[in-house]
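Hi team, as promised in this morning's meeting, here are the two structures we talked about. I've kept the exact order from the run log so nobody has to guess. The first one is mostly here for context; it's the second one we should focus on when we meet again. Sequence first, then the predicted structure tokens.
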Amino acid sequence: MLITTLLVFFSLIIIELQHPNFFLNDDNLTACLPIFFYNYDSVVHGEIPFFNFHQYLGVEHPPLLSRSLYPPTYVSVFLSYTLFGNYLSAIDIYVMLHIIAGGVGIFLLLSKLKLDKTACIFGSITWSLNSFVVYGSDSWIVISPTVAYLPLLLLFDYILFEKFSPKTFLLSVFLRILYFLEGYAQYFIYTLIFEILFINLLLVLTNPCRKSLKLFFQKNKTLFVGCLISLLFILPLVISSVNSVNKSYSRSKNLFVLDFLERPYHPGQFFSDLTFSNVINYSDYEKDTQSFIGYVGIMTIPLIFYLFYKLQVSGRKRIVYVFTALLITAYALSAFTPLQIILYFIPLLNRFRWFFKIHLYTIFFIVILSSYGFDILQGKLKQKKRQLAAFILFLHLLTLLGVYIISPVYNFAPPFQNNAISPFVDDPIQSVLREGRIITVSNSSGWEGVVRDPVLYGYSYATLHGLIHFYGYDVSLPKTNFEKTLHYFPYSPVLPDKTQIPTLRRWGVRWYLMPKNTPHEYLRVLAESDLTLFYVDGKRIIYEDKSAKPLVFLRKQGEADELTYDIASNGIHVEAFNSKEQPLYFNWLFNDNFIAFIDGAETVVGSDGGMTYVVVPEGKHNIKLIYHDRALINSLTLQLFIVLVFSAVFWKNRKIIWKLMS
């Protein structure tokens, strides 16, 4: 297992040395890195983040969907700071940790299936370095946790299927809780589906003479009870996240059927990926064809054919049939529209998109079967020729790495890494932009560079610097926020016209950031709207609206009035001196979970056209506006009581419970 870990680790290091921050691309850069940093910074300052004041006029920060309670998030940022002095490597560390864990997990699974250690190493490097895992994870970190959890969960399922073990059962419960907290429902549900299929295929194909209803319940109850116990520990967080989804503009309803069925992984693409014949015709995930996401090494397919050729003498026919059935199921779900239409009518699943994502499971079962084939092959070699098996293993590793290092098609400096990462960390006008809200302006020909260019502080980048952006990047964005932010969305160009300037001004939008290639006709529109040219450099133009409302202000500020404020994760602290009683406005959208305190005493929080305010008496006062999710706090308190009672009863009756479980 140590050899496996080192091989996977050094392979990923080679990729990183060749292409620094390889996994910091697309959504990982645009959305995930700011969330990682925001969570870490909040905890360092003594808060668990439940709200984000930095985008969309303030938006709830769902505890499950945002990974705010998932430990590897914090470990990754900490290691990035410790090793490199900044947060930029956090995503790469996070992905690498999970991929390495996945390599170890499949090694343990294959060992449990009684494969030789060399075959286990073969499976480990194939699972960790196949193109779906590496290419997919460079844009979507959600793939890498499944790489880690899928083999481990199936390992525990298999152990518990053979014989119940309290230790293994509790480990599976703990692992499933972590997988919940990682926060990506789509892969979690898909994994659970394949766990159920795995257990029941084992039941049918390895116990053909004992297909009783009693046996069915006996073999399924461990998984069912384990899921229930896992849910017990995180139920309030799940409810909170479900509520966030129900309030979401884009996730509260099922996808349109054509969007749901978009981008199936058709057979021609599958075979061209397997044979690497599409090397000249690369296209990315955003196109109708997804290439380079099915390559699992040249050796895997011949090994699978060899497995079935020798299967009659292998003595493991039934378990191989289980994985073959799972492989066929996974591929059919990713490739064939009729099956996908059936899934569309399952309410929980019709919020998901892009069926090629489920191809990850196809690859997993290809890896399992090819490892069986490798095991038979190296077992047939005489001892003095075992070095041939080692050579095949080494060659296989080189062909996998070659895709990422010497491929002539993909330059492996993902397009957003070349956008000057240094200003991403430090910018000459960063301190100026702290006062007032920012909007990222773009035109139809240049919006993509604006969305993801860190130099422009677009979207979620503001979160990294404590700046405030008018909109952002959040899949669980509530409908109310979407309406108040003029229906601006990360996937569309932002082209405010003169009629929208008063609304933007009211909501404190002071800074208009745009790329240097913005057409002059559009710049003239901004100038005619009484905006002042503030800053120009090699990549951006910044206009200032000096008439924009402040982010915190007194309604009728007099000569003697003054205030200062600072923003934390879940609240805003204001010190104000005013000459008479008057409203103090917080330029964020009103939320039912806001509570306010004046000099320690709770006061009423009001809404004026959606803007939040409190009435402050005359004189000098300390005011705090706090996001306090009462329902979540109360449910967490109740849950803690239930868990304590459950744990006490469970521990007292553990012998009886273990007997019933087994």
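And here is the second protein, the one for discussion:
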Amino acid sequence: MFRRVLIAALLPMLIVVSCSTETGTAPPASAAPRSAATVLSDVADALGVADASSITYSGNAWNIRNSFRQTPNASPPWPYRDDITNYVRTIDLAQPASLATADTFAQNLFLEPAVAGKYTQYIAPDQTNWGQQLEIWLTPWGFLQGAEANAAEVSTQTIDGTEFTVVTWMSPESQTSPSGLQYTVNGYVNGRNLIERVETWVEDAFMGDMHVEAVYSDYRNLNGLMFPATIEQRRGGGGIFGVNVTNASANPANLAALMTPPEPAGGGGFGGGGPPAELVQQLADGVYLVVGGYVALVAEFEDHVLVIEAGQSETRGQQILDQVKLTSPGKPIRYIVNSHPHSDHTAGLIPFIREGATLVTHANNVDFLNMALSTPRTLLGEDTLSPQLEGVDGVAVYEDASMRVELHHIPNLHSDGMLVAYLPEQKILFQADFTLPQPGADANPFVISLAEYVAETGLDFDRYLAVHAAQAPQTKADLMATLAGRDAAYVVPSDTPANIQRAVASSARSDDQRARDAGRKPAEVLTLAAIDAGDRVVELAAFGHYYTTMLAEAVGPSGHVYMLDMPWTDRFGGEAARAFDLAHDNVSYTQAHYNDVEFPQDVDAVMNVLFYHDLAQGDVDVAAVNAKIFAALKPGGTYLVIDHKAEDGSGWRDATTTHRIDAGTIRDEVVAAGFELAVDSTLLANSEDDRTQAIRAEGLRGMTDRAVLVFRKPNR
């Protein structure tokens, strides 16, 4: 496809050159800059796609958790990512069209347990909206086709000391922005004629001319193609999606099957009628709610108005603004308060910014919101905004003789820039996304964060009001009830790697195993041990299979778990361990004295949980075992030891009586084998345990003060 177009483009140039020769005009002494046609031809040859009409590639991917502008922190980088496995994408350049499918395992905004799902991104031939089509044009192959069809121009640009050939083209006149402007696409070609980056801009109701770019790196030969092994798309200055490519080919024989989208999932949307006839509800003198969508709270001061929350869309924001003007005529809207920077809580800010209101937000959000709201809006055909932002932290107070509004920052996992509004005189707390659980359900961690904050600060209120209106009135008592029994619940941290989240959530785990999670914190432990998909892991004293069950899931089918038990443990779990081995292709069980056992080699991690002290039984040569573990691990490999702490300086004294060991002794012995201590964690610490009682003493079982030590084999 690329070659045919290029030859046609080159013909007029060849005729010009031929005519020049006939008239005796000598060619220039130095090489002229390459034409666009030459650059595109060179790139197509370098990529190996001169005759490609379709491309397919596969691998594993990721995206930022909960999507762009729904992240826990407003400004990039956004650290929390969800894995996308079995990713396959096919681009039919003749249409053009694109289909990507994959499997996902993701956690939602409200930190409910991660669930398996399906990923589908389908751009049909008749979907000509630029926001969809750019997913094709941003690829190296789509970019080439767009450049060939749309009169590309060439320039050069030096970035960080490297010179790039920049190929620029504009979208067709039939494909324009709301302002009538054509879209611009730039591709950056390196000295090897490989495309490193493609960028464009798309109109966004909130972010104006939003910059979108795709970055391509680690090119390698895959089936005759030079293909980027790493692909990343960025928006708003940060990475939002990426692919680690393991295979690729051109012109697949099964193109029709690869381009057939899966059947859409069933189920209807949310129902609901129109807004209520009365949009404004008075709560007290000078205090109102604007209902009919995302709820806004309005506070009247003597000479101005403060509004908290602007709604989920620009239309809703304008509706709220209009209602405020009707309710408080003659008083300017001086402040618009944003609860947090998620997209459904910022879209309505635009009308208030145009009105000249100062945007009040948490300090963590200021840089991102200022950047987004100051971006030119040429594609929308609108004037650039001039936002005035005020960042607050801790407790910010807005008051005069007639009104007091306090804004409280609530640290939580949902957003690090979250504010709630407290009106002490009216005994009102107004919040967004701290939604109380349904009867019988557990509260999510950030609702607990708010309840704990209220308990610590003593905020006194009767009405608990929400941006997402509750079906029935709610009170402080309803919020504080969420603290009951919170210590018994175990919540997987939101930044836990996806393979470990899957492991902890696995249906293979028994209720008895889950009941121990709060005291063992398995997600944090496996994260400290750096257990990754595909790892080979040795587990000492696996009987009981508490960790084995999760490890088998966490390492996946490409990894392996080696269960190594001493013979005297057979009566505890030997039969079950042998059955577990038979039921899992990625698990093997060995029973042998640790003085004689042969460790598998080049493993990624070794886990010794609550068993180091038991090495005192059976005349185990502990130094020799540590040396074997050191030899078995890859450079950089992890050795995790967890055990019940004895009194400092007691050494092995209590190992066979209270079943405890001095943590310092573990550290010294393992380091003596050549390891480096990487982490000495207080994850499982309990200061109320005096370390003298037996580990199964009444009221202490499962709650001992435990050492959590992570050792690493040096890379050198």
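Starting points for discussion:
The two ends are 50 Å apart (CA to CA).
The chain is about 25% helix and 30% strand.
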